[in-house]
Every structure is written in structure tokens, then in C-alpha cells.
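Researcher: Predict the fold of Phosphoribosylglycinamide formyltransferase.
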Amino acid sequence: MSYRRSVDQLERLRARCLALPETTERLSHGEPTWFVRGKKSFVMFADHHHDDRLAFWCAAPPGVQRELVETEPDRFFRPPYVGHRGWLGVYLDVPLDWDEIGEIVADAFRQVAPKTLAAGVPARREETR
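Model: C-alpha cells for Phosphoribosylglycinamide formyltransferase follow.
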């Protein structure tokens, strides 16, 4: 993936994360990472694991990681370090539906945000597959 495309993907991801209430960004482990109220991370950009893949890792509702990795392994994976906690890896170097990415990011936010803050973020729309 070209450097320019990596920057574009990062900027699009950043916009979705920072659109959520009380979200901040700072580097964590050398990568842009987004936090709720500056404390709990919910999304981490992943461009440093020398696997030639561009991705992000995020908190996920129970069971979602397993379901998506099993049904769509070309798009989703179990990330290192945090995968055992149910976090989801999402490839950014494949064709993307940015509305879906926004929903995944919102789901991640709701997993770590305090309940009152999470309640202000609408639930994921029902899929019509």
C-alpha cells in the first residue's frame, strides 16, 4: 500500500474516532490510538507489525471477533497482544465500506465508554444481508 493511501486511511479512521464524544488521540506503542476521556483505548491504528498489512485494532462486543474472523478472514483478524481480550483486527488495505467502519468504531467506543457516555452513541443499525 502506498504511503499516501496509508495516510488517507488514517485520516478517515481518525475522523470517525474523533467524532465520538470525549475522545482524544495520542500515540501508544508508536501508533495513533484513540481514548475515551483520555483513559481507555478503543481503537489503535496498526501499521507497525511488519506484515505488510494496514489495519486497526478495536474493542469489540463479546463474540464479534470470533464471528467476523471465521466468516470474513480476508477483512478481519485476531490482533496480537489484545486479541485474547476479544479485540478485533480490521484490515484497511482491502475494499472498505466506511459506513461499516464507522459502525465498528462506534461499537468499540461503546465497549469501553462509561454507560452514560456510551448511551449517547446510537446503536449499530441492523444489517440487511
